[in-house]
Design a protein that fits this description.
single chain, alpha+beta, 3-stranded mixed sheet
Length: about 220
């Protein structure tokens, strides 16, 4: 795994090589902003899923949702606390991205996998050839581990609190683009195919058995 200062852009040489070898480009949003816009329905669904899971785990959430009283928000700004909260959100978003990376095959040894940190969060990306089933696992794991398993474990240990619930909720809603990608892959890529990312472009190909064994 290599360090990079920014998310790699589309490699046009790689694009030409993939097309010449029979890889097919997936129909998908051409940039991140369009992906975020199209993934809004998943944002709401993911939020509802998390609330349904957290509802029995965290009594204050149950009390808040069941309250019929009007409520208001009072902000007592403590700059130290505010800074810690911002850092906590940044760290959790970074953990989200690196969770993707942990499920990339041989991610530590791969010379096609990159990691970095920018103004928004850390990121991991790869041009490794990845099987469809593995690609779906890579996409869904940050939601599953950080917004489902993590709060369940903390609840069992009595460590769940308001801020962690907020972080898990934010992670669930922030996983909307991952779920959009999963739907795109499920609808366009045949089972058993392999997938390669090239910047904001994604390609797939069904490989013969001997190529499959070579990875």
């Amino acid at each position: 795994m290599k360090y990079t200062k920014k998310v790699p852009e589309t490699d046009f040489n790689l694009r030409d090589e993939l097309i010449s070898k029979g890889w097919k480009k997936i129909k998908e949003p051409s940039n991140l902003m369009l992906s975020i816009l199209l993934s809004l329905p998943f944002r709401f669904v993911n939020g509802i899923i998390f609330i349904s899971i957290a509802y029995p785990l965290y009594p204050p959430l149950k009390e808040f949702l069941n309250s019929n009283d009007n409520f208001g928000i009072t902000l007592n700004i403590n700059y130290t606390t505010l800074l810690l909260y911002i850092l906590g959100i940044y760290l959790f978003m970074t953990i989200h991205e690196f969770t993707h990376g942990c499920f990339i095959p041989n991610f530590l040894k791969s010379n096609k996998t990159y990691w970095g940190i920018n103004a928004f969060c850390g990121f991991v990306c790869t041009t490794e050839k990845i099987k469809k089933s593995r690609y779906i696992i890579i996409s869904i794991m940050p939601f599953f581990l950080l917004s489902i398993i993590f709060p369940i474990i903390l609840s069992a240990l009595g460590l769940l609190n308001n801020f962690i619930v907020f972080l898990c909720f934010l992670n669930a809603m922030g996983s909307c683009v991952d779920f959009l990608n999963i739907c795109i892959i499920l609808s366009q890529v045949p089972n058993g195919s392999y997938i390669i990312n090239n910047g904001f472009e994604t390609y797939f190909k069904q490989l013969p058995p001997y190529e499959d064994r070579l990875g």
